[in-house]
Each structure stands twice: as structure tokens, then as C-alpha cells.
Design brief:
658 residues; alpha/beta; five-stranded antiparallel β-sheet; 23 helices; 51% helix
């Protein structure tokens, strides 16, 4: 090889080396440039995530957080328009509702697209937002014009929008909102951006979680956890606003109803607190169904509810609604699979424009409710100023009753029960009296209702049972006869509901030594029907002791004939109100005869209460009534006076002085 060829070869080698070095340098520069670009993009992504996180942490609401997220994503990605949807619930399931949360939609060209979006709701799978709702994953549409399921193609085309992407705001796996974005260019799928959107959705989900927790705390602070009704605090706030409106505008009238369940303690004592809670919830549902949408029903605690009736014309509106609420209790409740009857007492207080405060009006309604209870329960009463004096008197009576129990001021009087066929005393009914002083004797109407409301009846009732049984044991010895005299003793609803009532009766029978078959326990229809299963259980255990069972004041309640048969009773006592009607009309005669026929079909004895004159006795005898008691024969008298009647009867068999 000559020198020229050698030089050319060296030159070629050098050129190749230079080409390699240049390519290497260009590749290095390209790699460096791509690295810088990737670094820049990662930095932008981090900045976007950081900006969204900061805004989310500072947001006061979900709306603020979503608005900030839209603005930030549009700024960092150069999407032209952003919009947010919130998930709502309906009977058909969840759907996406449009919101007023937008970014960069102010331009005139976007107006039609904005309007079409605001009028649409998206079910799962429908449109771009619906696909995100259904999949819980981001969705990318490269070309809106080619997507048949976009649903807004016409208005998006006029707005110059060509591509779109949307991603969910997730709380766990639950979609709570959807953000959608639009571009005026056809964009290929950007996997990196899609992953970033998923991260943003999870991040915003924490804001939703925090906001829900706050809302839940606020809700719990102002709502009853059992019924989910407004509680005392929320009711007081709404009542205060109603009072303020009434003071400013006298024509803005309102009323407060205070509702208390009658004999609710019986349910808790006989069926347990879960059953009581179930009744509380069912009552709340019935009350709510009787009210207008704008009325406030609240649970104050225990078995107490209140109602705020806004914008009423006059007190008659409140009375009509109170009647509707009372009627809601006519149908039985089903508690633990059993039928249970309940009632409520309602007090009404209305705005008068007289400057009363919210607590004062609530107190007025409370006083009226107690007045309704004292007048027989299951009714409503309007407040009047005189009720303050009644409340003070009631409190004084309660304190005086406690002292009377402690100082043994109660006595038992006995009213004879007469055999109409033989004319002689066959038993007595024990009736409690309060000897308040040497000259003052208080009858049950004057204190029993307070004794029942305060629970004092539990002690008083067992004292009467023991006293009556002890006295009858003495009479059995002094006035032996066949069959032996019987003693009838009233049992209050509260006593009957006690879990240890049967044990208490057994103890009295054992300690007094009375023969159980000579004891008749009297319960009212309302007690027997409050909870039929409990009633049957207790009655069966009492009958196992050997005592007899009577239904007192029969005909005044709502007994089911089927239950009367299942209760295995011994005696029906016809209420004195029906016997009194024998003087006035044939209706009374028909009622008494119907009760007689019913008792005969069920194999029960009948005692007619309130036999006041010879005409009553003659009519009852003619109808085949076996026993009667009333003033015609004797008023209730002390044990000594009854002993004298028994001694007189012993001297003159089959007779008693009227």
C-alpha cells in the first residue's frame, strides 16, 4: 500500500471515529434533554399534587376542595374546561348530579355546552361521568366526535372541544364525585396523566372522608341516635328562632306540642329496654306521618317528644293536629312479634305575642301535658296560666304522699260483694284511703294518679295487699263459713309490670297464711291488653299460686275476646257506668246483658259494680247476674264496721242491711 492509500485509510478511520463520537454526543444530549424533560414533568406533577393537597387541607368544604382541584389541574395540564359532579342517591340507585363547580367556562363559546351539562344527570354507564361512576376508574376519550356514548357531542363540537378525560373521587371503593376535563385538541391517551388523576382522586377522597366525619359529628350533636329525630338542643334552637320571628312579626303564629307516652314504663319493665326502644322508634314514625313537612318533630329523651308547628292560623290548627296524633295510637303496635296498645298525652302551648321565652313556652306545653295525664291520659289539653298552680300543688302532693307512706297514714276500707241469689256477703273489695288528718279522708281519685306517676304505687299497692290478706285471715277465724269469704284487691299497671310481682304476691300469701283461693286480684282491661304475652305469662304464674283473677271496670277498654279466653280469668266486673245507665235507657240494659252473655259463654263469674238502688238490684237479678256491690248494700267501710256487718249477717243469714 502506498502512502496515499495509507493516508486515505487513516482518514476514513478518523471520520468513522468522529461520526461515532458525534452520534454518541447527540444521543447523550438527547438523553440529557429527555431526562431534563422527564424531570420537569415529574416536578410539575409533584407541584400539582402538592398544590391540590395544600388546597384540600385548607378547604372548608368539599365544594372548595373540588373547585381548587379543577383550577389546579387545568392550570398544570392546559385542559380548557373542568367540571365537577356529586353522587346523589335515589330509589333507583346512585347517580351523578351536575354542580355549579366549573373552571374556565366563562367564555361565550362554552355557553351552550355549559347549559347542556347543567341539565343532565348521569346514571352508571351513561356518558363520560356515568362510565367513571360505573367503573370507579379514570376514563379517556380521544375524540369526542367519534364517541356515541358521550351524550353532549353537539354542544361540545360547537364549543370546539375535542378530547376529554374524567376521574373519580374515591372514598375506599365508593365513588363520591367525578371530575371531568376537556381539551380543544385531539389528545392521545396519556397513561402518566391517568395514573396521576387516580392519585388526585384518592387524595380528594380524604377530604370527603374528613367532611363526612365533621357532618356526622354535627348531626349526632343535634339528633337523637335512636329515632334520628332532632334532639332537645336542635328543637330549642328552632323554637328560639320561631319565638324571635313571632316577636318581630306578630302575625307569625306557632304552637308547641309536648307529647308523653302513657304507661311507657310498663313496656320497659315487662318486655325489656330493647322492646321499649322499638316502641319509641315506631311511635316516632307514626307521629312524623301525621305532620307537615315544615313541622319539627323532636325526641326530648325517654318517652317524650315535642312538635313545633310553624305558620299556623290559630290554636284550632294545633288542636286538629293534636287530634290526628292521638288517633295515630288507635292501631296496635307490633313489638317483638306481639300486639301492644299504647296511648299518649299531649300538651299544647301557642305563641301569644306576650314576650314569652322559648323555655317558658316549652314549660307551658309540658304543664298542659301533665294536665292531660291527670284527666285520664290519651288526650290533649291547652295551656292556661292556672296550670302553674296545679303543678305546684302536684309537687306538694307528691312530697306529702311520701310522708304519708312513712307515717302510716293509709287505711283500707272494705265494700261487701253480695250474692244476688242469696242476699248475703260472699266477699269484699279492699279499697285504699288516705287519712290525712283526724277529720279528712282522701279518696283514691285525690292521690292514685300521682302515686302511679311517681312509682309510690309499688309500695302502697303491696301494703294494701298485705293488709287486706291479714284482715281476711282474721275474718276467716271469726266468721267461718262455706265457702269462705273472698277478698278482691286492685293491682296497678305498674305493679303488674314488675318482674318480681308474682314473687311478691307469693311472699304475702305465705307470710299472712291466707288460702290463695280466697284472694282475687283485679286488673283493668288496659293493663291486660298492654302486652298480651306478658299478661298471659304473669296470669298463668298467679293462677299456679292458687289466686283468682278478675278484670275490673270491664267494658271501658278494648279487650279482644280471643285474649279474654286465653287469659283464663275467673270474673268480669261490670263497670259502674253501665249499671248507672239502667236507670236512663235501654242501651244500658243491652250493654249489661251483652256482658252477661259473654261471661256465660266464657264460663266466668260476673260482679256488677255500682248497684245504687233497688231497681238496679232487681234488673241485675232478672238478667241472671250472680254478684253485685254498691251503695245500696254498703259504702266502703273500715274493717271494724265490716266486722259488724259480718256479725249481723251471722245472726240473720242471707240478709244484709242496705
Amino acid at each position: 500500500m502506498d502512502h496515499i492509500e495509507q493516508a486515505e485509510a487513516e482518514t476514513w478511520k478518523l471520520q468513522r471515529r468522529l461520526d461515532r463520537e458525534r452520534r454518541a454526543r447527540l444521543e447523550a444530549e438527547s438523553i440529557a434533554e429527555q431526562g431534563f424533560r422527564d424531570l420537569f414533568e415529574k416536578n410539575q406533577q409533584l407541584l400539582m399534587l402538592e398544590a391540590i393537597a395544600d388546597a384540600a387541607n385548607q378547604a372548608d368544604s368539599i365544594t372548595d376542595a373540588l373547585q381548587s382541584a379543577l383550577r389546579t389541574v387545568c392550570r398544570f395540564t392546559d385542559w380548557q374546561v373542568g367540571h365537577a359532579y356529586i353522587v346523589e342517591e335515589s330509589k333507583e340507585g346512585p347517580y351523578l348530579a351536575p354542580t355549579s363547580i366549573w373552571d374556565r367556562v366563562e367564555e361565550e363559546s362554552f355557553h351552550d355546552f355549559y347549559l347542556s351539562t347543567e341539565t343532565l344527570e348521569f346514571r352508571p354507564g351513561a356518558g363520560l361521568p356515568g362510565r367513571v361512576l360505573a367503573s370507579a376508574e379514570p376514563v379517556w376519550i380521544r375524540d369526542l366526535a367519534l364517541d356515541s356514548n358521550f351524550l353532549r357531542t353537539a354542544t361540545s363540537g360547537r364549543a370546539g372541544l375535542k378530547s376529554a378525560a374524567a376521574f373519580p373521587i374515591l372514598l375506599g371503593t365508593e365513588v363520591t364525585a367525578v371530575l371531568e376535563f376537556f381539551s380543544n385538541r385531539v389528545l392521545e391517551l396519556d397513561e402518566t396523566l391517568m395514573r396521576l388523576m387516580a392519585k388526585i382522586g384518592t387524595q380528594l377522597g380524604r377530604v370527603v372522608e374528613r367532611n363526612r366525619a365533621q357532618e356526622q359529628l354535627i348531626h349526632h350533636a343535634f339528633h337523637d341516635p335512636l329515632t334520628r329525630l332532632p334532639n332537645r338542643a336542635l328543637f330549642a334552637d328552632r323554637l328560639a328562632h320561631a319565638v324571635a320571628r313571632s316577636h318581630r312579626h306578630g302575625e307569625d303564629k306557632f304552637a308547641v306540642l309536648f307529647i308523653d307516652l302513657d304507661r311507657f314504663k310498663l313496656v320497659n319493665d315487662s318486655l325489656g329496654h330493647p322492646a321499649g326502644d322499638d316502641l319509641i322508634v315506631q311511635v316516632a314514625e307514626r307521629l312524623r306521618a301525621c305532620l307537615r313537612e315544615e313541622d319539627t318533630l323532636a325526641r326530648m329523651g325517654g318517652d317524650e317528644y315535642t312538635v313545633l308547628l310553624d305558620s299556623i292560623e290559630d290554636v284550632n290548627d294545633a288542636m286538629r293536629i293534636a287530634e290526628r296524633l292521638i288517633s295515630a295510637f288507635q292501631e296496635h303496635f307490633v313489638i317483638a312479634g306481639e300486639e301492644l296498645f299504647a296511648s299518649a298525652s299531649i300538651g299544647i302551648a301557642t305563641s301569644t305575642g306576650g314576650g314569652e321565652t322559648a323555655p317558658e313556652i316549652l314549660r307551658h306545653a309540658d304543664l298542659a301535658m301533665y294536665r292531660a295525664k291527670s284527666l285520664g291520659k290519651g288526650r290533649f289539653e291547652l295551656y292556661d296560666p292556672g296550670m302553674h298552680e296545679l303543678a305546684a300543688s302536684r309537687l306538694a302532693l307528691e312530697n306529702r304522699l311520701r310522708r304519708a307512706l312513712h307515717e302510716n297514714e293509709f287505711v283500707v276500707h272494705y265494700q261487701p260483694i253480695i250474692s244476688l241469689s242469696e242476699g248475703g256477703i260472699v266477699g269484699v273489695e279492699a279499697l285504699v284511703r288516705w287519712r290525712k288528718s283526724e277529720t279528712e279522708l282522701v279518696y283514691p281519685d285525690g292521690f292514685i294518679s300521682v302515686a302511679e306517676e311517681t312509682g309510690l304505687i309499688l309500695f302502697l299497692g303491696m301494703w294494701v295487699l298485705r293488709e287486706a290478706c291479714s284482715t281476711m285471715v282474721r275474718w276467716h277465724k271469726e266468721f267461718p263459713r262455706t265457702p269462705e269469704l273472698t277478698v278482691s284487691i286492685n293491682v296497678s299497671a305498674l305493679q303488674f309490670a314488675q318482674n318480681d310481682f308474682v314473687q311478691q304476691v307469693s311472699k304475702v300469701l305465705r307470710e299472712t297464711g291466707i288460702r290463695p283461693e280466697t284472694v282475687s286480684l283485679e286488673i283493668t282491661e288496659s293493663v291486660s291488653m298492654t302486652n298480651s304475652e306478658h299478661t298471659m305469662t304473669v296470669l298463668a304464674r298467679l293462677r299456679a299460686l292458687g289466686v283468682r283473677i278478675s278484670i275490673d271496670d270491664f267494658g271501658t277498654g278494648y279487650s279482644s275476646l280471643a285474649y279474654l279466653h286465653r287469659f283464663q280469668l275467673d270474673t268480669l266486673k261490670i263497670d259502674r257506668s253501665f249499671v248507672a245507665q239502667l236507670d236512663d235507657s235501654k242501651e244500658g240494659l243491652h250493654v249489661v246483658q251483652s256482658i252477661m252473655d259473654l261471661a256465660q259463654n266464657l264460663g266466668l263469674n260476673v260482679v256488677a259494680e255500682g248497684a245504687e238502688n233497688a231497681r238496679h238490684v232487681a234488673q241485675l237479678t232478672a238478667m241472671g247476674c250472680e254478684f253485685a256491690q254498691g251503695f245500696y248494700y254498703s259504702r266502703p267501710v273500715e274493717a271494724g264496721a265490716l266486722s259488724a256487718l259480718l256479725e249481723e249477717q251471722g245472726q240473720q243469714p242471707n240478709s244484709i242491711v242496705a
